[in-house]
Amino acid sequence: MNPTRLKYLSLNQLMSELQSKISANRIKLSTLGLALGVFAIASSTGIALLTKFEQVQKENHASVMNELAIRTGAVIQHELEEALFGPISLAGVIQETGKEPNSEDFEAYASTLLAEYTKVSNLQIAPDGVISQVYPYDERLVGHDHLVDPKHEFEARTAMESRLPNLVGPLPWTETGSSALVGHVPIYIDDEFWGFTLSFIWMEEFLSGIELENLKASGYEYQLSHQHIKSGEWQVFVQPDMADFQADVEVPIKVPQSPDWVLGLAAKNPAVSPRFSVISRGGIIVTSGILAYMLYRLLALPGVLHDLVKKRTADLAQLNESLSREVEERNRIQQDLKVANWALEECSAGVVITGLYSESTQARFPIQFVNRAFTQLTGYTAAEVVGYNCGILQGQDTDQATINIIRSALAQGIGCEVTLKNYRKDGSFFWNDLTISPIRNDAYELTGFIGFQVDVTDRLMAQTALQQQYQKTVLLKHITDKIRERLDRHTTTQTAANLLRDHLACDRCTIYQTDADGNLIFIAEAKADDLALLPESDINNLDHALIQKLLTQENAVVIADIAQDSPNCRKLFCLARSECEVFAGHSYFFSASSQWFVGFAKLLRT
To answer: CA-CA-CA-CA torsion for 539, 543, 545, 548, nearest 10 degrees?
Structure first.
């Protein structure tokens, strides 16, 4: 290739890369400028809205506080006006009669007025300014001269000269150590000054009556002040708790013929907390910065979305693969469960699965599952046993020691193998070869038990029959051995009778032989000491049909009650008629061959 061409391509490539970088930087700068613009707009807008919000909050707060102050001031003004109603009424009575009422009339009239105007502490009559009567009576006030006392003279003379009622105070009262509001009502008779009717309102009672403390409970501090009637100086007579109290709202309160009071209210907490204002502004700036940064990242780094989508796609693929494996595992587990369930259902042994406790039936180790073999073995359906334990299969003669072995194994959470007598639903019994094993979860926590039940009744019955046959064989061998020890016939048969009676624990064992004519021949007998010997005359008179019955039966012939069959029994066992009536029992006979048979008698002595 031409070297000039190579140089030209390299220069073009360099210029192209340079233009790409310049373009990328321009994009970054424009993106940064846009982000900064968004930051400025968002922060300024947020701060403007916050300022507006704070202004509205302050206005609302001021409006609420102003309304509260006006309402409270109106209540105070109403109470102050009512303070003069009582003495005005009392003055009217005196002007009408032209004289001071006696004490009984005064008390009656004053009590009626105080019942109506409850805020007034007491009413007084002061001819020439000197208190003569007080109701309720207070000896500390009687004799006080309002026109002479320098603390009260100015207010009293102002009312006297203006001829108008006034309410002044609070004024200190040295006699009581308290301050009070005093209402002066001047009385003129025939244009001559007669004196005053007065009303006292102790300040403590007045303030508690108008419930100013509710303002504090609502989050406000209050102050009451007025301009002194004589000096004109402003005085605060109800002090706030705040040291640097500055009233946010002031409301004037009209006082009859006296300078106005002023109620000042100040909020304990500002409408907008300075901390809230600072934190909110900081939050707006931080939020605006985050928004601008996110916009910058979104516009300046478009590859982020691509990488994010790629990563999410890979995550979804991995999750899908994991879900596929989980579905396969669940299918495998379900298949295993189906196989296990089929195996349990088809198992020839009865299978029982139990839990640990049932809330509904209050049963310990409640049955949760039984297979078909269990229902066939016991006669109970699954619905009849689920929720209950296997105690329903036990009966009164179920061995208690075996039950205790089962209970101990269940309490310890271990397995056991026992054979016990159980009962079916229809009441029939069966011998149950029971194997119990604990069931535990992955954390090796006990969750229940599984039991396998096998009916071994036939096997045990066969074992019992075999054992009985073995005992017979041992008995016969023992008899044979004893017989062999003796060779004569009488001794041999007598030995056999003695051994059979001892082994069977009966009262009499008798051995007979028949002759060619079918008659019985007495051979030997073993008897209890209180029974008589068997005479041959009784044997010769036996019923021939009875003898044939005894000889032709393969199994034992039973006479249920000796007393009811006394003739034959008496002959066979040498029992007198009186003995047959006294004794009650059974006689058992069995034939050893066509010529020999042995009889046994077991008598129950009553």
So the answer is: 0
Main-chain phi, psi angles of 333, to 5 degrees: -65, -40
Rounded CA gap, 532 and 574, in Å? 6
* 170: preceding bond cis by omega (within 30 degrees): yes
Query: With contact defined as beta carbons under 8 Å apart, do 527 and 539 qualify?
Result: no
420: its two tokens:
């016990």
Residue 185 pairs with which residues in a beta bridge? 197
The amino acid present at 600, given as its one-letter code, is F
Q: Give the C-alpha separation, 373 to 455, whole Å.
A: 10
Same domain, 187 and 216: no
State residue 183 phi and psi, 5-degree precision.
-100, 120
180 Cα distance to chain centroid: 61
* pLDDT (tens digit per residue) in 448-490: 999 999 998 888 888 877 787 777 777 777 777 666 665 566 7
Q: Is the peptide bond before 136 cis (omega within 30 degrees of 0)?
A: yes
Looking at the fold, whether 536 and 592 belong to one and the same domain comes out as yes
Encode pLDDT of 266-311 as tens digits. 877 776 777 887 888 888 888 888 887 777 777 766 655 556 666 7
CA of residue 518 relative to chain centroid, distance:
91
Domain residues for 412?
Answer: 347-455
Among 168, 186, 208, which residue terminates a domain?
A: 208
Element (DSSP H or E) covering residue 261: strand 258-267
**SS3 call for 420:** strand
Instruction: Determine whether 170 is exposed, middle or buried from the number of CB atoms within 10 Å of its CB (0-12, 13-18, 19+).
Output: buried
CA angle 182, 183, 189 (to 5 degrees): 135
Which residue matches tokens 């109800």? 238
Rounded-to-integer distance, Cα 198 and Cα 177, Å: 19
Looking at the structure, tell me whether residues 220 and 199 fall in a common domain: no
Contact by Cβ (8 Å): 196, 146: yes
Final residue in a domain of this structure, among 208, 241, 257: 208
Element (H, E) at 218: none
Residues 490 and 579 grouped into a single domain: yes
Q: Rounded to whole angstroms, what are the CA distances from 248 to 251, 290, 322, 331?
A: 10, 40, 69, 77
Q: Is residue 493 part of a domain?
A: yes
Residue 424: which residues within 8 A CB-CB, separation 6 or more? 377, 378, 379, 380, 430
* Same domain, residue pair 92 and 191: yes
| Cα distances (angstroms) measured from residue 8 to each of 17, 20, 260 | 14, 18, 101
Q: Which residue has the tokens 């009811």?
A: 564
140 and 189 in a single domain? The answer is: yes
Pairing of strands 234-238, 416-423: unpaired
Residues of the chain with pLDDT under 70: 1-21, 23-27, 174-177, 211, 242, 271, 300-310, 333, 336-337, 339-340, 343, 481-489, 518, 532-606
The SS3 assignment for 565 reads coil
Give the burial class of 8: count Cβ atoms within 10 A of its Cβ; 0-12 exposed, 13-18 middle, 19 or more buried.
exposed
Distance, CA of 501 to CA of 475 (rounded, Å):
12
Tokens 């707060």: give the residue: 61
**Are 395 and 423 within 8 A, CB to CB?**
yes
How many structural domains compose the chain? 5
pTM of the model as a whole: 0.40
The CA distance from 375 to 392, in Å, is 13
Which three-class secondary structure state does DSSP give residue 232?
Answer: coil
